[in-house]
C-alpha cells in the first residue's frame, strides 16, 4: 500500500483554463466528467510531482494530439478511488497500492477497472544524506539508529531523534515502525512535500544530519544524494496489520485505474490512457522541469513530447 498521500513542490496543482484545480472531488463532481457526448476527460492528479508529470503529459497529448478537452482535479489518494468509482473522474494514473479499495471497487462493485502498469516502480523508505552515510557507514542499519539519535534532535522532536515526514495526510507506517522497532525517535511532519523538500535542501546546504521518509522515483535525489537506511526486510503480509508493522516498505509497480464506464465508452482517450506507459527516467525528466526549473506543467509536457515522439506515438497506435 502506498504510504504517502498528497503534497508537492509548492503544492503545485495542474491548473488549466478548463481545470477545477484543488477541488474536493468527494463533494463536487467535475462538470465535464461523463458529460453526454462531450469529447472530454477528467484526470485525477495527486500533488506529488511524479503524479503531476504523468497527468501533464497525458493531458498535453489528449488535448493537442487527440483533440479532447481535459479537466484536472486534485484529489487525495483514498478519496480519488471514491471519485473514480462514482464517475467524478475518469482516470487515476499513479496508484501505489490500495488493496482495500481495489477489492471494493474493482473486484466487488466492478465500478473501476485496471488500466495497466504505469511502467514506473515506486519505493518508500527512510533515508539519510549520503555525506552523513560516508561519515558514519553503520548509520544505514536501523539497529544503529538509536546510537545516532542525538544527531537528529530538533526543537520539534521532544529530545528524541527526528524522523521527518511530509504531510500529516500521508498514509505511512512510520509511527508504528518507530514504536515496534523501539527507536528513540519522533515522527515530525514538515507539513507538505514542498516543505519537506525545502528542509532537506537547507540541511544539505549546511551539511547537517537528517533522517527522512522519502520515496523514489523523485527528482530530488539528483540534487541531494541520499542513502537508504536498511529496515527489517519486507515480506509479503508483514504490513497487513498497520499497528504491528516492523518491516520495510515494498517495491511497488505503480498502476493506472479507469472508471469502468469510461473504459468502455471513452473511445480513443481510454485506449490511449491504457497504453500510456513510460520509464522512471521519463517521469523524472518532466518532474525536474516542473519542480526544479519551475516550468509550467504543460510547458514541461510539451518539451518532453517534442523530444520523445518514438515513445508517445506508440500510445496512439
Could you please describe the fold and organization of this structure?
With 317 residues, this protein is an alpha/beta fold. It contains 11 helices and 9 strands. The chain has helices spanning 49-64, 77-85, 99-108, 130-135, 174-180, 193-205, 260-265, 267-275, 280-291, 297-307, 309-316; strands spanning 40-45, 69-74, 91-95, 112-129, 161-165, 185-189, 211-216, 226-229, 251-259. Strands 1, 2, 3, 4, 5, 6, 7, 8 and 9 form a 9-stranded mixed β-sheet that branches. Helix 1 (49-64) links the parallel strand 1 and strand 2 (69-74). The longest helix is centred in the first third of the chain and has 16 residues, at 49-64. The protein is globular and about 60 Å long. The relative contact order is 0.20.
Short structural description:
The chain is an alpha/beta fold and 317 residues long. The protein has helices spanning 49-64, 77-85, 99-108, 130-135, 174-180, 193-205, 260-265, 267-275, 280-291, 297-307, 309-316, and strands at 40-45, 69-74, 91-95, 112-129, 161-165, 185-189, 211-216, 226-229, 251-259.
Element order, helices and strands? EHEHEHEHEHEHEEEHHHHH
Largest sheet: 9 strands, mixed
For this structure, the quaternary state is single chain
Number of strands: 9
Question: How much β-strand is present in the residues?
Answer: 15-25%
Radius of gyration: 20 Å
Counted by DSSP, the helix tally is 11
Overall 3D form: globular
Approximate helicity band: 25-40%
Q: Return the structural class.
A: alpha/beta
**Mean pLDDT, as a whole number?**
89
What distance separates the N and C termini?
32 Å
Please mark out the parts with pLDDT under 50 across 5 or more consecutive residues, or reply none: 1-36
Amino acid at each position: 500500500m502506498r504510504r504517502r498521500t498528497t503534497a508537492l513542490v509548492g503544492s503545485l496543482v495542474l491548473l488549466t483554463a478548463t481545470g477545477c484545480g484543488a477541488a474536493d472531488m468527494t463533494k463536487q463532481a467535475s462538470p465535464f466528467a461523463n458529460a453526454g457526448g462531450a469529447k472530454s476527460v477528467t484526470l485525477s492528479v495527486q500533488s506529488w510531482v511524479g503524479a503531476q508529470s504523468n497527468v501533464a503529459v497525458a493531458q498535453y497529448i489528449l488535448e493537442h494530439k487527440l483533440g479532447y478537452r481535459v479537466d484536472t482535479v486534485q484529489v487525495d489518494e483514498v478519496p480519488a478511488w471514491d471519485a473514480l468509482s462514482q464517475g467524478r473522474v475518469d482516470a487515476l494514473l499513479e496508484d501505489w497500492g490500495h488493496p482495500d479499495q481495489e477489492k471494493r471497487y474493482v473486484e466487488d462493485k466492478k465500478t473501476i477497472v485496471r488500466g495497466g502498469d504505469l511502467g514506473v516502480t515506486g519505493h518508500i523508505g527512510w533515508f539519510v544524506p549520503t555525506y552523513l552515510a560516508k561519515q558514519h557507514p553503520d548509520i544505514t542499519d536501523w539497529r544503529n539508529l538509536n546510537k545516532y539519535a542525538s544527531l537528529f534532535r530538533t526543537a520539534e522532536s521532544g529530545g528524541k531523534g527526528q524522523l521527518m515526514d511530509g504531510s500529516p495526510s500521508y498514509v505511512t507506517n512510520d509511527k508504528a515502525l518507530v514504536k515496534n522497532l523501539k527507536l528513540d525517535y519522533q515522527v515530525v511532519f514538515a507539513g507538505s512535500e514542498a516543505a519537506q523538500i525545502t528542509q532537506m535542501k537547507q540541511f544539505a546546504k549546511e551539511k547537517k544530519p537528517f533522517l527522512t521518509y522519502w520515496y523514489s522515483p523523485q527528482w530530488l535525489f539528483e540534487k541531494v544524494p541520499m542513502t537508504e537506511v536498511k529496515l527489517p526486510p519486507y515480506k509479503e503480509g508483514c504490513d497487513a496489520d498497520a499497528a504491528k508493522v516492523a518491516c520495510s516498505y515494498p517495491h511497488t509497480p505503480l498502476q493506472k485505474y479507469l472508471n469502468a464506464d469510461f473504459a468502455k465508452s471513452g473511445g480513443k482517450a481510454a485506449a490511449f490512457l491504457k497504453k500510456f506507459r513510460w520509464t522512471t527516467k521519463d517521469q523524472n525528466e518532466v518532474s525536474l522541469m516542473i519542480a526544479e526549473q519551475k516550468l509550467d506543467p504543460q510547458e514541461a509536457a510539451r518539451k518532453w513530447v517534442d523530444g520523445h515522439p518514438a515513445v508517445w506515438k506508440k500510445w496512439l497506435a
